[in-house]
Amino acid sequence: MPTILQYVTIPIVGFVYFLAVLLIFRRQISQYPPSVYKLFKYGLVLKLVSAVFVELIYLHYYGYGDTLVYHREATFFLDKLVSNPLEFYNLFSLTPSQYKIEFAEIISQTSGVFDYYNESTIRIIKVTSFLSIFSFNSIFGTGMIYGCLCYIGLWYIYRVISYHMPDVKQSILFSAIVFMPSVMFWGSGILKEPLAVYLLGIILYHIHKLIILRRFNLLSVIILFIAHPFLYATKSYYLLVLYPSFFIFAMFFYVSSIRSNIVRRLSKGTLVLASLILILLTPIILSITGLSDEIMSSTLEYVIRYNENLSKGSGSAYELNLSGTGIFALVKVAPQAIIVSLFRPFLWESNKIIILITAIESTFVVLLTIYFFFKVRLYKLIRLMLQRPILIFMIIFTLLFAIVTGISSGNFGALARYRVALIPFYISFLTCVLLYFKTQKNISENETKN
User: Fold this and answer.
1) pLDDT mean across residues, the chain
2) Quick check: 210 pLDDT over 80?
3) Which of the listed residues 216, 234, 252 is the one where a domain comes to its end?
4) Residue 192 is assigned to a structural domain of this protein
5) 127 and 179 within one domain
6) What is the pLDDT of residues 88-138, one digit of tens each?
7) Which of 318, 356, 427, 445 is deepest in the core (most CB within 10 A)?
8) Which of 118, 15, 135, 116 lies closest to 74 in space, CA to CA?
9) Cα–Cα distance, 317 to 104 (Å, whole number)
10) Based on the domain organization, do 212 and 357 belong to the same domain?
11) Residue 25: its pLDDT value, please?
């Protein structure tokens, strides 16, 4: 349990982190409208507060969970740093199997779930150990650092999207990415998701900078060289969703820059057809190459097994009729998984306060989606997506991520966490399209009056 000092110093530590992030990113934020700068500050404060609440819930409501495991193990690391710095360094080089041997007694006395300590979990424990140095091993301070990292990742995601959608109201776009409850809350605290969103954001920003903007920068290459294996070890399916989505986006982006109208339209039609064929053939390709097993193991095998105990008897479990563990089984339940990830739990499925909050958010997403389809005509949407390929990236990323998230969660509690990287892209997609057509309508009306 945290000491009284850790509780008392929460405002001081939070203020220090707030100033640090603001000073580091002040120059970047100043390039955007003042309303975005104002929202950035409000969002950062909410992020830090959310991080504290996440830790309080795990400490006093659940009494168990990932965040407590990470902090507990990190404490052992820091104890070694004080007593024997060399041994502290050696702990960072331990493989998952070596780690289980080293901490066998501790694991058996607490969780006893040795399968839980895979490469991803141990990587987070090591990161938590390092970050805990800067928070003096305060669970609240470390949680706020994780929250700040997630917020930085969301900021980079916003920068990429806003670059391609400069004619929409930027304050609303920023809010759509940052202020959704599940993103604000579960994107904080000592969890895998905040770190994964941070890595996703910086990887997206730098590959966009190198490939789309064609601004070669050695620093970007170094950052990608470090961040890619880190994210792969933490949440490998983030990359398996990101790269195909970005590849299709890049193809459409370069085709859009062709000056000849005839060549450009023919190329877009060819790309649309090729993308559809690629999507249809992907399961077969993955199955033939053997990558199917790797994907399933990283997204299903471990996660479902670990979540079974949490789902049983919790009243928040859901089923997708998943039969088999191959890639074709994943494709079969894809529509169900998308619906679960984006629109559930429904209000009548919530039997806990935390699930109810998620259900309220899901209801908002459902209503916004219904409003979207009432306001936007399909042919106009397709034409806009071809003009602004970033929208193609956002919707493909959303759908692919929703499939993986819906299958791997197992219960609505885990789902709220896993879709932290999903909601910003989907809500910002809907927001960008609606704002764009509203802006165009206002322009047309003003021209008519004049």
Assistant:
1) 82
2) yes
3) 234
4) yes
5) yes
6) 777 777 776 777 666 666 666 555 454 566 777 888 888 898 898 898 889
7) 427
8) 135
9) 31
10) no
11) 93
Residue 217 pLDDT class (50, 70, 90 cuts):
confident
140 lies in the same domain as 4: yes
Return the pLDDT at 308: 46
- pLDDT of amino acid 302: 43
Within 13 Å and on the Cβ side, how many CA atoms surround 303? 25
Task: Specify if 247 maps to a domain.
Answer: no
Give the pLDDT of residue 122. 81
Q: What total number of domains does the chain contain? A: 2
- If asked whether residues 213 and 268 sit together in one domain, one would say no
Q: Are residues 355 and 277 in the same domain?
A: yes
Residue 177, pLDDT above cutoff 90: yes
Q: Is residue 241 one of the residues assigned to a domain? A: no
pLDDT, one tens digit per residue, over 39-84 is: 999 999 999 999 999 999 988 888 878 888 888 888 887 877 777 7
For the entire predicted model, the pTM comes to 0.88
Residue 253 lies in a domain: no
User: Domain boundary at 199, 234, 269, which?
Assistant: 234
228 and 334 part of one domain: no
- Shared-domain flag, residues 223 and 313: no
33 and 164 housed in the same domain:
yes
Cα separation of 383 and 268, whole Å? 11
Domain with 76 in it: 1-234
